[in-house]
Specification:
Helix content is about 55%, strand content about 0%. The protein is mostly helical.
């Protein structure tokens, strides 16, 4: 809401800019009941004049892999690439422990997300760290 109001847009204005049918979707996002689908995140960020990661409530200097995917506007099932299955990607995004991804997998993720390979490696480490922290509370 603050980002929307900062640029002087009403919910109705934002509804039109995003091609939505009703401002109720904006209200649901702003109240935290739901999050925007990944395909809306880049456009929403552009309309609001912010970086996509700012909309996702993550540290933009250390985002998990899922946040990078959503910031790129992609759903999980869009992450398959030559040399990498969607399931391989999902295991990495979930932060499941396992062997280190190959250079080819890192390169595939970077290419799909259009980001640097070093950022992908850092995001995988963050995802694994988050997964380990969650597992400790179970």
């Amino acid at each position: 809401m603050a980002a929307r109001e900062a640029v002087g847009l009403t919910r109705g204005d934002l509804t039109l800019a995003l091609g939505l049918s009703s401002p109720s979707r904006i209200r649901v996002w702003e109240s935290g009941i739901e999050r925007p689908r990944p395909r809306f995140v880049p456009k929403l960020a552009a309309v609001l004049g912010v970086e996509p990661l700012q909309l996702l409530d993550v540290d933009p200097d250390d985002p998990p892999l899922a946040a990078l995917r959503v910031a790129a506007g992609l759903a999980t099932n869009e992450m398959g690439a030559p040399g990498m299955s969607v399931m391989t990607y999902v295991r990495l995004e979930d932060g499941r422990p396992g062997s280190e991804p190959t250079g080819k997998v890192i390169a595939s993720i970077a290419a799909v997300l259009r980001i640097d390979e070093a950022l992908v490696q850092s995001a995988i480490r963050r995802s694994r760290s988050d997964h380990a922290a969650e597992a400790a509370f179970r």
